[in-house]
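Hi D.,

Good news: the full-assembly prediction came through. Inputs first.
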Amino acid sequence: MIGSILREAWKSMGANKLRTFLTMLGMVIGVGAVILMLAIGQGAQYVVKQAIATMGSNLFIVLASFSTTSGVRTGTGQAPTLTVNDARALLELNTVAEVAPMQPGTKQIVYGAANWNTQVYGVTPGYFTVRDWTVIEGDPITETDVRNATRVAIVGQTVLDRLFGDEPAVGKTIRLENIPFTVAGVLDRKGQSFDGRDQDDTVLIPLTTAQRKVFGSQFPNSVRMIMVQAVSENAMAQAEEDITRLLRERRRTPEGQEPDFTVRNLSAVADVQAQTTKVMSILLGAVACVSLIVGGIGIMNIMLVSVTERTREIGIRMAIGARRRDILAQFLLEAIIVSVLGCVIGVALGVGCALLAMRVTGIYAEVTVWSVLLSFAVAAFIGVFFGFYPARKAAWLKPIEALRYQ
Amino acid sequence: MTEPPNGVVVGIEHLYKQYETAAGPVPVLKDVNLEIHRGEFVAIMGPSGSGKSTFMNILGCLDTPTRGRYVLDGHDTSALDSDDLARLRNRFIGFVFQGFNLLPRASLLENVALPLIYAGTPRRERSERARELLERVGLGRHVEHRPSQISGGQQQRVAIARALANRPSLLLADEPTGNLDTATSHEIMGLFTQLNAEAGITVVLVTHEHDVARFAKREVSFVDGVVTHDGHVREPESAT
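Then the structure:
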């Protein structure tokens, strides 16, 4: 029975190919748009999530802000008011798991004939924990390195590519400000940060070496920033309070006065970013869904025309024994076939466009199985929803009236 | 199903039909009583507006009476819903229309097999039965043709084959020769006569042509919704 109904439906669709194609086109474009938009939204979310994951979790960054002693206000991170001792004190807090005092700067690095301008960070071993960053080759910076201000460097993947190419880097000597450093290790690849910087374009050296030999500060113990990792996500709020209170106490900053440091919650910044991408992808999907609904209305429109055109046929079928449900099934099935077939083509089109977008624009798009399944479910639903009214109209025709219809 | 008494295929008692219009109810059939036995060949005659088409529709379970009883082959039709009526049309009635009413996109074989689909007959059996019926009406060599590829007379033969698909108790023909020329009309009427005489199929024919009614054995005439004559086929006065 269902087999003969399917054949009938197929035949009547084939009888008016152009019309069937145009009806289907609405679904094709709708589903294609949904697939493509979801792929782009999903891709953007994936990129952000990935970047957040590489940042390290539950992070605060404490920056030295303007100096109040001199009359001139300097930019954030410029005043030499944060010290290694601050970092040590912060580590004593119950809500703090690890600290990483840092001294950053941009330097030219030379290896043989190759040279490269990169971010150089003076760090302590805590940095690797805080950033959740492993050294895949060689050794990380140790407490001994920091204590002795040794001239060792850990290079990121981008620096490795630029300076060494395929050569092994560990044990080689690079020059930083004309000071020779031995490459002690190579960092794992991290990719882009959530604000779009290349995190692998970096060289890590012991903090003390940076302070005394590379950046040459007049305040030998000062650091530009301290990264602080809270013990857990739930402890973030308490940790922020603790950090601020402790640093104020250490400076004896009076109540009501602005402190000479800033505490930023990096995870919160990342969350906002993630939220933004999510909202964007929902918006894209919603816009695409509108076109799917328009496609559905197209199907309904054509089905109504088809029912009117085939009134006589319906009458004949009823006269020779078709029940209402037989007629209903026939027209409903036609609508479902059109929408599901349109969906299949639409999925192919959407995936094709997503791949093309990736190649041409470099956007990362990700077609997920659930978005394809969702499209099929929505297409079938649209077929039933928009096909039901015309099919019901056909099934509820009176046999004699349908037969008399010219 | 048990054989109804006296082989009564159509039993109609005190049948009324009226249409509701804005100007009030318009009676079309008034107290019609009729009994048709198995193997009869009845012509229903009457001028247009006499109610014979309405009667035909009720006979074919396409329409329901306002009052009265209609028993089709032992089935009282008065209490049936649309699905039951569809089943009755499918199993007990074979329709032959003036305009042939074949499905234009389907082959002759598919057209004849259509009632079998709604009867739930398996595919293989459908196609065998349809082929056999087409052979019986002399179109065994055209099974894959479309209705538009054959003549009007041939199309009406296909329609007759389709009407016979489920071995109905009653073959209902509504002006079956109305769209055909005289020679073809006689051929088609010959086929009805043959089916009636040889296979014992009960035929009810609606026509306004005496020339066509002549083929039947019994004539029922309608005037203004009332049966005015029921008996042997009368030769029209003008024909002699």
